[in-house]
Structure formats: structure tokens, C-alpha cells
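Worked Example 4.2. Consider the chain below.
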Amino acid sequence: MADAKVIPFDDDRSRGSSAQRPARRRSPGSRRKGTEPAPVREVQPLPGSASAQDDVPVTREEQPEQPRQPEQAPEESSGLERRIAGGLAFLRRRLTGDYEVDDFGYDAELTDQVLMSLLRPVYEKYFRVEVKGIENIPSEGGALLVANHSGTLPLDGLMMQVAVHDNHPAGRHLRLLAADLVFMLPVVNELARKLGHTLACAEDAERLLGDGELVGVMPEGFKGIGKPFSERYKLQRFGRGGFVSTALRRGVPIVPCSIVGAEEIYPMIGNAKTLARVLGIPYFPITPTFPWLGPLGAVPLPTKWTIQFGEPIPTDGYPPEAAEDPMLMFNLTDQVREQIQHTLYKLLVQRRSVFF
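Applying the procedure from the previous section yields the following C-alpha cells:
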């Protein structure tokens, strides 16, 4: 029974456990009970080890993403706040009357911020106007821009105005000379004045040119926009050359302008002259869509436009009395007309499609 105690077995197990303890003491984590995973996280991996290589890209990917979002949000919000503040300031000035107009009623602020913004989508997206020769318009001083007129409705003048304003390096404004009918219509009258249009008379034109403004004139008048579709791109008579006399008096250059694409927006196949006389208008157009489709027929066709400004014709080399020389005025008028007509034919030959 003394042997049943098996004392040597207990001694061997205690010896074995004591023999294993030094091996566990060599590991630093064996000195803390229940905290064996913690030292593994605290151990810094050696450079070049697999764990170091795995940790580095994770740290580099997470750090740049978090600071980017708070940096972009203030910029977007500040831009929106500036636009809102600018719009509110604009409305406050309009309501309080704290804005300026010139003697002709031209409102530069309203034109830049509102009216041009309304015309620009039609100019860029609908008619897709292509501008050539903008460098022929002087950067400063007065100049007279002479263009052909077409399209049943005078949209070509508005598109020319946007073309000069948006494409000229100096961002110049074009002051158009309009017919009497424009200023007889209630709403159109106010908008035309705000856009800088004025009555087509020699006195107003000379005053604007003397102030160093760009003045636009379309000598064909109603004969140009009211001509039938069969006579498209054939220039009508340029009047008696009053625009040449005005340019000679002020000594400003004459810049010919040719517009292609406006003739097809309302193909005029007929003219109800009796109805036009009753309504007191120069003509009553009949097109393939108007008046058959009602208001929908008044929508212009989306033709592709090209506006080219030709080389300026100087007038400052003539004496003051040249403005009263009828032969000189006739020659200069014919020169301007021939240059516009020749450019129209050239652009028509280069055009591959009316709409594209």
C-alpha cells in the first residue's frame, strides 16, 4: 500500500512542469496571466516583415479619405452662398432703384446678369452659333457694324449682340439701331431699351459713336427680314447710305458682318398683305408651320448659324466734308454691300447642312 501512493509520479509531474516553466518564462507574454493576445498587438513588426507591409498601406489609404470631405464641403457651400448673396444684392438694387441707365435707357447690369443669360442658351444650344473674324472688331473706340438682315423675325440682331459680347476679348457691348415698330410695342420697347437698342436715326448713331460705342445697323430693314424664302441670301437695297455718312462724320471704321442660318428659321412662303395692312405691320408671314400650327408654328427651326465679321473699312482718312459727297457715300455703301454678299456666298459654299 505504501507503493500505492505513487509519490514518484507526482514528483515527476512537478519536475516536468518545473522543467517546462523556464521555456515559458523566455516568452515575455507568459509573465501576465490572461493577457496573452494584448502583447501580440503591442509588438512592433520588424521593417520588411509581412505584418509591417500589410499595415502600412491600410494606414495610407484610410488617412487621406477622411480629411477630403470636410475640405470640399466648405468650398461648395461658400460658392453657393456667394451666388445667393449676389442674387439677393441684385434684387435689392432693383427694388430700391439703386442702379444706373444711360440716356438711351441702356441697363448694363440687367443686360449682363439677366437678359444675356436668357439669350445665351438660344445662342449656344439652339442655333449653335459659330463666330469668325471677331478680331476685326476694335478693342476700344467707336465702330459701325453693318450686317445683312433676314429671318422674318429679327433674331439675327440679338444673336449678333450675344456674339460680340461673349467672344470679343474686351467683352464689348453692341448697341443696335432698331426700327420705329420696335419701340411702339409695349413689352418689346422696354426690353429693347434695356438691351441698349436705340432708334435708327443719324443723331442717336452719331452720339453713340462719339462716345466710343459699338453700333450695329442692318440697312436692309424690313425688306431683308420680310423677303420670301426664294430670295434668301440675296441682299436687298441698302437705302441711301445714311450709315456711311454717319461713319464718315465720326471717322470710325465700318465692319461688315455676314450672317448665315437666319434665313431658314422661318421659311416665308407667302405674305398676307391685306391682313398686314389691317394689323399695321409691314408684312404677315406665312410659313410651312405658321399660322397652321398656331403658337407652335412660331417656334423657329433649329438651324446652324455662322456669323463672320469682315475686315474693317477705315473712314478716318477722309476730310470732314466727305460726309456730304453723294458719290463717295454710294461707293462706300456698294463696297460694304459687295463684301457682305461675297462672304455670304463663301459661307454657303462651305456649309454642308442647314441644321448640322
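The first helix runs from residue 7 to 25. Residues 45 and 52 are 5 Å apart (CA to CA). Compare this with Example 4.1 before moving on.
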